[in-house]
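Per reviewer request, we include the raw input and output of the structure prediction for the construct analysed in the revised manuscript.
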Amino acid sequence: MSAVESEAAAGIPYGTRLGQLAAELGGATAVTLVAEDGSERTVGWEELERRSNQLARVFASHGLGVGEPLAICLKNSVEHLLAGFAGWKVGAVVVPIRWDLPDWERDRLMAVLRPALVVDAGTLSLFEESTDESSAPLPDVVSPRGWGVCSSGSTGTPKIIVQTAPALYDLSTAVTSSVVASYGPMDPDQRVLCPAPIYHTNGFTAFRTLLHGDVIVLMQRFEAEVALDLVERHRITGFIAATPMLQRMVQTEGIERRDLSSLSWVQQGAAPLPRWLGQRWIDLVGPEHFYMSYGSSEQIGLVVCRGDEWLAHPGTLGRGMSETEVRIVGPDGDVLAPGEVGGIFLRSPTGPQASYVGDDVTPMEETDDGFHSVGDLGWLDEEGFLFMADRRVDMIVTGAANVYPAEVEAALSEHPGIVDVVIIGLRDPEWGRRVHAIVQPVEPSLDPESVIAYAKERLAPYKAPKSVEFVESIPRTEATKFNRAALVAERDGPDDDGRGPPV
């Protein structure tokens, strides 16, 4: 048995799987792309297969081969999907990268990744070139490491988190959402909204959804009101979204009059969920249709929760799924008792399913018995439900007390006059670090004193911001992420030795 045949015995190569779906589903719609101007473009399964076969031949002619990195720097688009499938059809490691990175940051990532081929706005001619190629199926080939995602983490050092598993689709275990399916069977016909950018882990699930044979509605760029329109118009059955997206959706005027009856599942991930926001979504779709998940691109384990469990343990992330064990560890390595805050460590039967590529990249923390951590802080209750405090690097030490920005952000996010908020720690002669709020207000008339007073009504006084700054918008990426360390450095400036301040 050849290496490819041996690997395929455990699953179907991604490229081959697309061919199977095209043969089965033909010209039926696979993807509806919703452009930024609201226009829609539909693509069928046969077209995805035909065009990705043609593009794969062009990629191969440009030197892309088995195990080599393919960098895709495109907006959410049909072309991005075609490039991904074409990469797998020649055995490449598919790595989506933010399409709008400044040259300096992009160059650093490329130096780490060393891609054999880059697909971006400057190489769109590859798609035109491919139209003259054969659309016949290519020989089966397996990418030895299915895909990767880019990260600069908390340190600012660029790294690629690359999956260790090959690009094989296992029909026996595959589902549209493993989180939702862990609570019971999912309906076979899914129409999934994809609001996140494909370069983010949430957005990359668009590929997994297609491989399962489900229809996706792919947003080129997220807009809350448009997302709600799409749920109604396309009768969307489910979607995965980061916390800021969910918040913007419920803050849309008239949300209570929207028809969300088609939604059988809404899954939150990628950031802590304020209690008011969790309650709001449970009110909208019902507790048995709202799900939360906590994990990482490193796939060290997965913690999940459904709305009914969340109501019994408000604010929880859930409990371990698929035999994931959860442990809270103190700074000296001791296992902490319920209620004590420490590092969140997970252990699953498969262990981490990714490794880092990069220079001077700090490895994951690991215990002697195989638990791993990506740097988050939290605690367990008496029943083993996990709660998030914050990331260790984000914690603010102010006047010898610990303040977790996520907690303050959650408290302020419910303020009716606040659209978005980020909490950072700034250098202060009295407190060492003072809690500082960067606020995007609904109206410019909002004043700092009312923001501070609102926080003090909900938090211990030392956790409330001591200073407030108003901005037109928080500098978030399409994936709703922001660089907290950069926000601190912009305001504090360098230390005496020229380095930026600690967070």
